[in-house]
Design brief:
By secondary structure, the protein is α/β, with parallel strands linked by helices. About 55% of the residues lie in helices and about 10% in strands.
């Protein structure tokens, strides 16, 4: 079964903020809601960011520990099912994912090949589980997303559709600022052939 290696630290929080600020313009362009410590802005320096993380960390650490325990209990059922579903559509999940908990930035993000960062201020308890599943699906299809140069919101729609196939009713698809009718049509026409789906929706890139 897929296992999760859950970590949290001041360094993770600091790097999360720094990377969020580096990509500030992209996040604004795509209308993402970002969480930052009080007083931190794109003009803040590293010392200011570290001080803000230090101030918040004692309270955040308690939440990280609680959320870690809660997630691992839920994962016993859902991790096994996710692995089975990914394999059933000829995708190859990693045996272990490094899950880094933070309190800053967007709700969730991923880094090839097995790193996930989740903001527990945006996704907690059952929401944390859903975000982790969402990010693992992202990682499982990323090589095809890169190969066919899939645009951001098209990619997000495909992941949401896969999520619904794997876990019907578990989560609502996010609202994306692009037409989705043709993406959905191509998805349902070619499912479970993931490569064919992604190749076909590449025409939706704008």
């Amino acid at each position: 079964m897929i296992t999760l290696k859950i970590t949290h630290s001041k360094e993770i929080d600091t790097n999360r903020i720094i990377n969020t600020l580096k990509n500030w313009d992209w996040f604004q362009e795509h209308k993402y809601h970002l969480i930052l410590p009080s007083g931190i802005s794109p003009e803040s320096n590293t010392n200011e960011i570290q001080s803000a993380v230090e101030k918040d960390y004692l309270d955040n650490k308690i939440i990280y520990q609680k959320e870690s325990s809660d997630l691992l209990l839920r994962w016993q059922e859902h991790g096994k099912k996710l692995e089975e579903k990914l394999i059933s559509v000829s995708l190859s999940p990693q045996t272990e994912y490094e899950l880094m908990l933070t309190s800053y930035g967007v709700g969730g993000s991923y880094h090839v090949s097995n790193k996930i960062i989740v903001n527990i201020k945006r996704s907690y308890q059952f929401g944390l589980l859903k975000t982790v599943i969402h990010e693992i699906i992202h990682l499982s299809i990323e090589k095809y997303i890169q190969e066919y140069k899939i645009e951001h919101w098209v990619k997000e729609r495909v992941v949401d559709l896969l999520m619904n196939e794997f876990f019907p009713g578990l989560d609502k698809p996010q609202e994306v600022p692009i037409p989705t009718e043709n993406i959905d049509k191509q998805f349902h026409a070619f499912y479970p052939d993931i490569v064919k789906i992604i190749k076909s929706v590449s025409d939706n890139n704008g």
